[in-house]
Structures are given as structure tokens and as C-alpha cells.
Amino acid sequence: MKARKMFFMDCHLAGRMYHDADEVWDELKVGTQLQLVLDTENRYDPKAVAVLYNKQGEEEPYLLGYIPRGRNSEIACFLESGWTNVFSCRIRRITPDAHPENQVQLTISVNRNPEAQ
Predict the structure, then answer these.
(1) What is the pLDDT of residue 65?
(2) 3-class SS at 105?
């Protein structure tokens, strides 16, 4: 049997202190599923990949931060090409006492194509 997902990379959540993470901090746990979205309007990084948390019962997701610049170009390329379901992103570790840039660690996996054998 083949795994449904394959490891792609680990990274920290960049820009966490500048966005909405504090609003949902108590809900964020190891294993929480997050969404990756290309932020085409980001003036600081043309390949910016936003990390969003979809709170149950709310329409608008919370912007937690970004995949770090320099680690986002491959993901951005897939998202820009319309492959929005290629990646899964989950919280790997939360370290509240660390510097805000290192408090949330992410694991990103590539989802297996269900049509592949």
C-alpha cells in the first residue's frame, strides 16, 4: 500500500507576529491542518505563499503568516499553475517561549494523485 502523502519540507511560519495568529493562538495545535495560498498581491515577495487557518463556522480564514522567502518558490510555482491541492500543510511543533518567528514549525507534504497507481 502506498502512502497518501509524501514529505516535502519542514519550515517555520514566517511573519507570525504581523498577522492573525494571536487571534486563534489557543486553537492551534500540533497536527492542525492549514491551507497554502499564493498571495499575488504581496508587495514584499512575488512568490509569497500565505499560510491560512480555517476556523470552523467562519467564512474568512485567518492569515497566520507565510512560508519563508527562499523556501517558497517551488510551492508558489505549483499554486500559480492552478495545482491548489498538491500540498498539505500541518503544524509540526509549537514552542510558545521561542522568538515569534520560531514559535510555529510546519510540515508540508505532497498529496498522492488518487488516480496514480
Answers:
(1) 97
(2) strand
Can you give the pTM of this predicted structure? Answer: 0.92
User: 15's torsion region: left (phi>0), alpha (psi -120 to 50) or beta?
Assistant: left
What are the DSSP calls for 74-91, one per residue? HHHHHHHTT-TTSEEEEE
Question: Do residues 64 and 97 lie in contact, with contact meaning Cβ atoms separated by under 8 Å?
Answer: no
**Structure confidence at residue 112 as a pLDDT band (50, 70, 90):** confident
Give the domain ranges of the chain. 5-111
3-state secondary structure of 60: coil
Q: Which three cell numbers stand for residue 59?
A: 467564512
Query: Fold for domain 5-111?
Result: Alpha-Beta Plaits (3.30.70)
pLDDT of residue 1: 59
Supply the pLDDT for residue 117. Answer: 58
Give the bridge partners for 1, in sequence order: none
In a 10 Å sphere around its CB, with 0-12 CB exposed, 13-18 middle and 19+ buried, how is residue 58 labelled? exposed
